[in-house]
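Weekly structure sync - notes
Attendees: PM, LS, DV (DV joined late)
Agenda: review two folding runs queued last week.

Item 1: First target. Sequence and structure tokens pasted below for the record.
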Amino acid sequence: MTERKAWRKFQSPGPHALKSGKAPWHTSARTSALVGTRMSSSRLTTSVHCALSSFFAMTSTVPSTTSLQPAAAGTHYATVYGTEDILVSLCNSVTRVLSVAMQGPVHYSAMVQRITKTCLKPDIGCFVLFDGGFSGLVILNFSADAAMEVYERYMLSMGMSSDDLASSFTSDEVSNVLGELMNQVVGDFVSKIRRELQTHIRQNQPKMLVLNQPVVLSVDANLDQPEARRVTFYTNNNNIFYLELAMDRTQFVKVCDFEPQAAPDPDALMEQVAGSDAAPSPASGPDDETEALLRSLGM
């Protein structure tokens, strides 16, 4: 008992220790450790402050090397055209041809889908194969409402009466009109590829199918790492049709500067041809024939 009381008295400070102002040995050690920790923290804060001050002083006098600077004179950066650029060119051909044919606006979505395979879908599917500088497949999938709107607006703009129009999207007239318009779309696209990318591709005859259920269409061409995209189009009446493109994974790198050729104007070409045919050829008079005869005789 005497040893246990002595140990407790030694372990915890008694009232006499607090009154006398003398802390026990372990309390003094803790206080010393706390004071040392605070001093170390204060020294660390002072060191960090000095380091940051030195860093900001250096950055204020030394110019940054990561900021974008204008390219030096003569620096050339190659321009690269990829799948999305070719797709945008094709979409612009679709909007241009159909807007003129329908006499109304046609626009496409700003979002493009990456797909794994192309597919003909109801109600009418049109497709065209092309090859040459690169190979690929173009598909247009129309709903019945979109197909009839394109057909009716195109035929009315051509001067046909509404009474003479087909009443069903399954009619051969509707398929023929959509096939003709797709032929114009791909023709405009091929012409732009020839002018802007300076390569040549050729197309086959468009094919149209009236479908009751989705049909998976595989490309009958040797594609090097094929890529497929789908774009949503909207007509003037907000009817929807889809464009799908499958093509080689390829890039065109512009290594030399050139100006793309302007699109030929058919009206200007026809006027030029008509003017050349109408210009009279200079008639040869008798004096010219006499001079030619004397010149041949050496006189």
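Item 2: Second target, run right after the first with the same settings.
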Amino acid sequence: MVKIITLNEIKNYLLSMRVLLLNFILLFLTIANIVFSVKNYESNELLHNAYILENNALINNLSNSISDASFENYTIIRKNNPLPFISSDNFNLPNGIELNILRIIDIKLIKKENFLFNANFSLDWLFIVGVILSFFALILTFDSVNGDKNNGILKLNFSNSISRNAYLFSKYLSRFVLIFIPFLVYLLITIVIFQIKNSFYFDFHEYTVILIFIILSAIYISIFIFMGIVFSMLHRNIHKSMLTLLLIWVSFILIIPSLSKINLLSFSPVKNRNNYEQEIKSKSKEYDDMLLNLRDRTLTNKIKILNEKSNIQDELLSHHVHDILSNIYNARNIQRISPYSVFRFIIESINSTGIRSFDYFFSNSREYKTRIFEYLRSEDAKDPNSLHLFCEVKRYARVSGSSFNPESFPRYGARIASPPIESPRASILDTFILIIFLIMAVLLAIIFFQRQELV
């Protein structure tokens, strides 16, 4: 009986205006997603490769002298995301870091040459599922029960000895099929075209991310389907149920995710850029005065003070970034009352995009700085004539002028370290929260339907 009701529901809705509009919008957004993701990937890849070639040329030029390499500033750029059609980065997030062997000097936003694809918006599948499909899940369910009750179909169905839970499941399954099958088809088209256009094929990791995205999308869409069914029971008037669900959708999709910008909870204050720069200048002056008033003016003592100055500058920048990221992660706690926010946090985490990608990037850059220093120090140790005194100020440093093999010089890698601020366990917690949302929606639907009158 469940199969018959489900097939009848699908048949009745398949050519309805709502389903046709859903498929038309999905087709349009899929085309837009492919165009933007392919162009963005190409643009990012060109930018990334250009910096790799530039750094390789720089390292080759510096390989004649360990001393020259120890004073050079290196610019690294964030690795290109191979799945931008799933979730893309915020275009205002820094994607470049300038560093030397002792400290991170600056965090940069390196723009791509094509201005069109620097626009601050995303047409990825995270947006399509999170915003568009959640909306249509409610549009297809706001009259699912009250509509049948008003037309007398509900009483007629239960005259055929079908259980209430079976009827409820058929309502859910029919809507899920009408939404999820087009989603899978268009996503598959995106995956195939994206690989063909960029002339590469995904590996096991990328396919795992895609599979997890599909599973989480199924859970997320199911939450809104059951939510629509619940409110179609609570209101006999279909217009009231539609208006109520629209208000809930606006709250979950638009209002609650924006609460971090309002910063309602007044988390620990974060120094702005000007205050941070003033603190850097103050500390730098403090160490400059120490150097000027130094009594024992041996070279070793001078270098010790200068290295302490470099370390404190590096620590201040690290603390500044840490405060900003901590504030953002703390502000996310209030957003977790929205299924959309939880869904977005998980997808950005597994696909290494959004604020999590910068978290990784900054952590990795600090690790890379250490790797360069350790490499040059090990090469310098091979020279018996070197004093092995590294310093950011060239006239004080005493480092070997010997050459080194440029092929052995450390290259920046994508995932050296874990995010220092928010643990990957947060993604597991978010997944658990999303499942809790689904369980609550299912239980509410069952409870309310058991008490539902048939007429």
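Discussion on item 2: The first helix runs from residue 2 to 14.
Action: LS to circulate a short write-up before next sync.
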